[in-house]
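Example 105.
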Amino acid sequence: MPTVRFYSGECEYEIEVPSGTTVMRAAVDNGVPGIDGDCNGECACATCHIYVDPAWLSKTGERPSTEEELLNFASAAEPNSRLACQIQITHALDGLRVRIPDSQH
Ligand code: FES
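Predicted structure in complex with FE2/S2 (inorganic) cluster:
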């Protein structure tokens, strides 16, 4: 199964999940702190904001316009910001590295 690595402050979490799982679901279902996922992946809350490691940006693809608009409400959004519920982990993303913001609000 593919893995995703979450970085939060000085902590690192390596989570193995079935292909097709979203990055948000991987975090929430495995107790990774800092990703809330309040809308349960409906792209409506921005509480699953993450920063994709620049080395992985080309593989995670471009942000759709709906995600772009929602990220305007996220605190401290950066060019590599994404909503974790909008990225599905596949074998092509095995080893994906993402950083969790200090706050989702
Ligand atoms: S879980 Fe709400 S936007 Fe991702």
